[in-house]
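At this stage, I put together one protein's amino acid sequence and its C-alpha cells, which the following lines show:
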Amino acid sequence: MKSSQTVRLVLMAMLAAISVVLVMLLRTPLLMAAPHLEYDMADVPVMLGTMMFGILPGLCILLIVSVIQAFLLGGNGWIGLLMHFVASGMLVVVVGLFHYRNIKWWKTILGMVLGTITMAVVMVPMNLIIAPIFFGSSMKDVVEMLVPIIIPFNLLKAGINCGITFVLLKALTPITNKDVQLFLKCKINQLKN
C-alpha cells in the first residue's frame, strides 16, 4: 500500500513538473488587444492529474504549479497565485466532478464545457475586485475590458486547454482512471522484483 502511494505521488510530481515546463516553453498572447494576458498550457497536466487521481490531488498539483509560476516565473506574486489558483481551481473542480469515477465521455465533455464557463464567470468578480486594488486600474477600465478582453481570454484559454486535455486523455486511456490502479499495481510489482 505504501508503494502505491509513493508511485502516485511520483506521478503527481511529474505532472506538476511537466506543467511548469509548459509554462516556461509556451506563453503567448491570445488577444491582440491584451498582449499582457498570456496563454499557457499549465492546466493540461493539472486536469490530467485530476482525472486520474481526483479533485484534491488535482488541486494539490495546481497549488504547486501556481506557487512556482507566481514566485519563480514572474507571475505577479501573491496576486498572480490567487488569480491562477482560483480560476484554474474552478476548472479543475468542475471537470473533476464530472469525470473522476464516472468515466463517460459525454460527461467529461460536459464537465469541460461547464468548467470553461465557470472559470470565465469566476474571473469577472476576481478582476473587478483585484485589478482596481492591486494593479491600479480604475473600476471603469476593468468593466470596459470584461466583454471584449477578460471573458473571451478566459473562455479561449480554458477551452483550448480542455480540448488538448481531452485529446491526451483519449490517447492515455489505457493507463488512466479505472486502469490506473492496475497500472500502479504492475509498477509496484516490478519494483519489488
Notes: The chain has a mean pLDDT of 87. The chain has seven helices and two strands. Strands lie at 28-29, 38-39.
